[in-house]
């Protein structure tokens, strides 16, 4: 019954360790999955914001600012330019196939007015309350800059949106309207739901794999230790016929070898004790049978007691050897204990190094995020410069038209002078010279502007490429961080396993102490027998014992022999 209770406690401890490590793995994987989901949601939101801003900027380039200003004032749905621009925006919105693309103007204090709606749902002149728009819409009108917003809720439609606002400029570089592109919340929810499904599947697979690996590792780790404990318990119950053989690690093999030596020595001791006990029993019987003849009893008793003295002395010597062997066994177990403790410290050091590496990667992620924001700012600045260059080109075209009108005027003056044969031709020649210089200057300016435009295009391409590289770097850091977190979790699990081995070794030490106590008890019994036989020898040598005293001594010897038999009867040799 005692053995069964111990086995139940041991397997209960194993089950607790398995449950604890499994829970740690499951919680770690769930936490990492939640963090990944949050990062993916944030990344998806940022991606939709950038896409909305890019679509709005592309649409603005298709709108003539002056014509748009004219349409926004007249709100004439039959105007030719309105129909053309409406068709262009509808085609663009259809090609994109996700959000809503439309233009608004700020003509009232409390409302924005729709002009050209690429989604095809709102007519020209429709008014929408300003509180339904994010604050970035007002900033686009006020500051003339492009903005995108975080997801916001519109109570009128009971929906939430991600929007981008890009100002529309006329030829005088004045904001005459805003191009808006919206993503509905349902599209964001669909994307995040799909991502959540993939994350849940990956989490379930990781948890299943971790539980299987945890079970196999614990089973392999506990199997040799359980066999060793079962063997020690059998030895503690007195069965010395067991042979210890195992394919366990080197430390467990050392314990097996030490236990084999101990069992072998105890077998020899018990055999000698049995022989001595038999001799004591025979001697006591002889004393009872031949108590009438004192001389014969003396001789036989003297011989028997001398043999008992020799045997018990040998028994005492062997007991001391067994104690020395047990001490060596405890030293070997202590050596294993120190090795396990060293491994536990190594796992703790691995966990500390992995934690420091995770902190370093988090710093790198912050730097990459800063670089992304700077690249976005550079892209915005290049877009503004491009808009200004477009304005300069419009001004140059105006100068060219003035130059052409001046040329026509000069030709007219020349014809009139030839008809009237006017002699004041110097003014006309000066005008022609100025016209030629204007043409040359205009061509040079156009060349410079073309060169600047090309450089801006190259810069924009470089910024896009840098943004892609930064995104790749961010993904790589996220993967490295996940790998380090996995290493950190594994080191913690191995540390827990080292602690379990630490507890098991303490149990082995307790068992070996129990065996050592049994050997000491045998030694004490042997010492008592030796003392009794020495007293008996002294009495017989003095020849002062009577027949009754011989009988009493014989009875005492038989009792001691029975006690010795009882002590060794629990051992199975």
Automatic annotation (TrEMBL):
<keyword id="KW-1133">Transmembrane helix</keyword>
<dbReference type="InterPro" id="IPR003660">
    <property type="entry name" value="HAMP_dom"/>
</dbReference>
<keyword id="KW-0812">Transmembrane</keyword>
<protein>
    <recommendedName>
        <fullName>Methyl-accepting chemotaxis protein</fullName>
    </recommendedName>
</protein>
<dbReference type="GO" id="GO:0016020">
    <property type="term" value="C:membrane"/>
</dbReference>
<dbReference type="InterPro" id="IPR004089">
    <property type="entry name" value="MCPsignal_dom"/>
</dbReference>
<feature type="domain" description="HAMP">
    <location>
        <begin position="219"/>
        <end position="271"/>
    </location>
</feature>
<feature type="transmembrane region" description="Helical">
    <location>
        <begin position="20"/>
        <end position="40"/>
    </location>
</feature>
<dbReference type="GO" id="GO:0007165">
    <property type="term" value="P:signal transduction"/>
</dbReference>
<feature type="transmembrane region" description="Helical">
    <location>
        <begin position="199"/>
        <end position="218"/>
    </location>
</feature>
<feature type="domain" description="Methyl-accepting transducer">
    <location>
        <begin position="290"/>
        <end position="527"/>
    </location>
</feature>
<keyword id="KW-0472">Membrane</keyword>
<feature type="coiled-coil region">
    <location>
        <begin position="319"/>
        <end position="381"/>
    </location>
</feature>
<keyword id="KW-0175">Coiled coil</keyword>
<comment type="similarity">
    <text>Belongs to the methyl-accepting chemotaxis (MCP) protein family.</text>
</comment>
<keyword id="KW-0807">Transducer</keyword>
<dbReference type="InterPro" id="IPR029151">
    <property type="entry name" value="Sensor-like_sf"/>
</dbReference>
């Amino acid at each position: 019954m005692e053995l069964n209770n111990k086995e139940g406690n041991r397997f209960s401890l194993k089950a607790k360790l398995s449950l604890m490590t499994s829970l740690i793995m499951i919680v770690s994987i769930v936490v990492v999955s939640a963090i990944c989901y949050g990062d993916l949601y944030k990344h998806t939101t940022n991606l939709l914001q950038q896409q909305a801003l890019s679509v709005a900027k592309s649409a603005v380039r298709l709108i003539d600012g002056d014509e748009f200003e004219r349409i926004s004032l007249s709100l004439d749905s039959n105007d030719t330019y309105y129909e053309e621009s409406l068709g262009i925006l509808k085609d663009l919105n259809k090609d994109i196939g996700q959000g809503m693309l439309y233009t608004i103007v700020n003509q009232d204090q409390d409302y924005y007015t729709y002009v050209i709606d690429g989604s095809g749902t709102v007519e020209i002149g429709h008014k929408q309350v300003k509180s339904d728009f994010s604050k970035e819409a007002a900033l686009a009108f006020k500051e003339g800059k492009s903005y995108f917003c975080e997801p916001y809720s519109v109570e009128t439609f009971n929906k939430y949106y991600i929007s981008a606002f890009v100002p529309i400029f006329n030829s005088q570089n004045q904001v005459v309207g805003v191009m808006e592109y919206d993503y509905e919340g349902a599209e964001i929810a669909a994307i995040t739901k799909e991502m959540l499904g993939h994350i849940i599947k990956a989490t379930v697979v990781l948890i299943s794999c971790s539980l299987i690996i945890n079970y196999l590792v614990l089973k392999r780790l506990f199997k040799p230790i359980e066999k060793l404990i079962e063997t020690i318990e059998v030895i503690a119950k007195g069965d010395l016929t067991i042979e210890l053989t195992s394919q366990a690690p080197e430390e467990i093999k050392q314990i097996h070898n030490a236990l084999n030596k101990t069992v072998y020595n105890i077998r020899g001791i018990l055999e000698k004790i049995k022989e001595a006990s038999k001799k004591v029993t025979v001697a006591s019987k002889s004393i009872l049978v031949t108590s009438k003849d004192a001389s014969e009893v003396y001789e036989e008793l003297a011989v028997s007691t001398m043999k008992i003295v020799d045997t018990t002395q040998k028994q005492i010597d062997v007991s001391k050897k067994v104690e020395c062997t047990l001490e060596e066994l405890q030293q070997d177990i202590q050596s294993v204990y120190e090795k396990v403790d060293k491994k536990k410290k190594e796992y703790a050091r691995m966990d500390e190094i992995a934690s420091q590496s995770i902190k370093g990667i988090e710093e790198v992620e912050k730097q990459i995020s800063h670089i992304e924001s700077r690249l976005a700012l550079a892209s915005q600045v290049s877009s503004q410069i491009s808009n200004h260059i477009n304005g300069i080109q419009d001004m140059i075209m105006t100068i060219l038209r003035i130059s052409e009108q001046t040329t026509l005027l000069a030709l007219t003056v020349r014809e009139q002078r030839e008809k009237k044969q006017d002699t004041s031709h110097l003014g006309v020649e000066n005008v022609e010279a100025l016209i030629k210089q204007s043409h040359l200057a205009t061509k040079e300016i156009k060349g410079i502007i073309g060169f600047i435009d090309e450089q801006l295009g190259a810069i924009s391409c470089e910024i896009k490429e840098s943004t892609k590289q930064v995104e790749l770097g961010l993904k790589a850091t996220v993967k490295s961080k996940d790998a380090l977190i996995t290493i950190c979790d594994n080191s913690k699990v191995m540390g827990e396993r080292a602690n379990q081995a630490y507890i098991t070794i303490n149990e082995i030490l307790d068992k070996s102490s129990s065996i050592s106590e049994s050997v000491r008890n045998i030694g004490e019994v042997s010492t008592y027998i030796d003392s009794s036989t020495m007293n008996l020898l002294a009495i017989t040598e003095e020849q002062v014992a009577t027949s009754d005293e011989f009988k009493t001594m014989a009875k005492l010897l038989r009792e001691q022999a029975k006690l010795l038999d009882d002590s060794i009867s629990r051992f199975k040799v």
